[in-house]
Amino acid sequence: MDRTTIEDAVFPDCPIRNILARLCDKWSLLVIYTLNRADKEMIRFKELQREIPDISQKMLTVTLRTLEEDGYIVRTVYPEVPPRVEYALTSRAHSLLPHINSLIEWAAENRKAIIQDRKKKIVSHT
Hints:
Elements: H1 15-23, H2 28-37, E1 43-44, H3 45-51, H4 57-69, E2 73-78, E3 84-89, H5 91-125
Antiparallel strand pairs: 1-3, 2-3
Helix pairs in contact: 2-5
Keywords: DNA-binding, Transcription, Transcription regulation
Protein name: DNA-binding transcriptional regulator, HxlR family
GO molecular function: DNA binding
């Protein structure tokens, strides 16, 4: 999937769809959230992968590249052997955090009701 050319068929110049499609994929918000709650400003790839154990190495790499392209994270490569690469949130990502935190609060408040509704739907289909 080419993550740089997500376009709405009806409104191809719509910036909202493009931004939300990239930001609201399966992993992006979780990576941003995890980078924010790290106890240090910069975090290495393997540390990030340990914090999100169900993400594959390939998917974490793709997600980090996309977040870097969109200016949510900065990637710093240190000229060492072996190379050390660290990731940190940008000011753009920090400005997004209150919205992510509100979404997390909303999800926590509504989780039980949503799960109950899912169970009702499953029972009604059987």
